[in-house]
Amino acid sequence: MARDQSLRRQVLVGVDGGGSKTDCVILDAQTKELLGRSAGGASNWNSVGQDAALNTLKAAITGALAAARVEQDGILGMCLGMSGVDREADASSLKARLQEWLPAEVELVVYNDSVIALACGTGGPLHGCVLVVGTGIIALGIGRSGNHVRASGWGPAFLDMGSGYDIGQRALAAVARAVDGRGERTDLVEATCRHCGVRDPQDLLQWAYAEAGWSRIASLAPAVLQCAEEGDSIAFKIVTSAAHEALEAVIAVATRTKLKSQRFKLVLSGGLLSRDSPFLDIILEGVKLRLPSAGVAYPRVEPAIGAALLVHDALYGADEAPSSIGEAACSSASRDGSPPRCQDRHGVHPGSHGKHSSRDGGWAGNLRKHRRAVSNVDAAFMKHVMDMPPMRASSNADGLGSVPQPGLDRLRLDDAGGTDSPRRQRRHSRYHKSLEML
For the ATPase BadF/BadG/BcrA/BcrD type domain, which residue ranges apply (predicted)? Predict the structure, then answer.
């Protein structure tokens, strides 16, 4: 029995839970190789309720473990990056319910999803700003002293302006006005009907109220962005309003954390920021003009993998923490057909818990501990992270997930061409056109 126990594979579990979908990955604790993954529906419990969210999380974790051929007692550590986990009480409640289901010795860490996104974009250090826009929206800023400030992400009851839900809701309102004759004609009527699978706009009533939750309305956002791209003025007004709300959220956290007056990284994450669109153009141009000290970055690994690597840092402490996000990114993606995995510079010793245990703290406490652990990131490591190939996009049925990264690669290359590049000129034009509509 002792021999079987010693040979049992130990793994790290990473979860990215959002308002539209939930992703779970299993990494080998020693090699950080991706062993299995699973996906499920929404797990933002402010949207779907605590019981439904917990069931979705359990199903995703169980599915990923099955794909990896690992039992629950092989879990060494687990990190969840969750939208909707905005307070210490939220994190503590979620951890308590999961700990009833998990083996007692599992190191369990819960963060807001924006913390994971920031780490995935910086290569590990929790310093800078992040804007996440998908079904919902949140902006987070973490200053050099560790002070953290968030903006937006209050949910639909507070309009959640700038989010995919906001864009979808405004589109439905525009469609209703157009159909009634109370508003301008718009291509959104046809686009919305097509997306919802109905012929008569009146049937949108049944579609809109058929299910609870936010993701159904937010799933309209890509269609709205497409209409704006094709020149529909109503769609462009909707996108303009949302983009400026998102921009104001970033400026607010950069100002309140005092990052605005210094150089810092701004990580853009979430489905609506991973596609080339007027929405992204307006935000990027606004950042360039209003936050000139910000350097825009994109996640180098997907959030679920980043979550698994952050729990590694919680387990093993500062000596190995700097290698986690960057060094393991290639290894984690290798089974998905991405470039060959990188050689890890630091070994992992599964089975020995470090002194950075955070079972009793909320996400803000975890954040402070992790930030101390990775404060000594070296320049060579950061160069390695930035030289890595971009992460590969994962499929997402609701339409709010990542799209192929080459679009963003072209965006970066066009930026390198200076202010005269076609993309820069278009972005400049869209931004100033958007100002006229506010």
Answer: 13-310
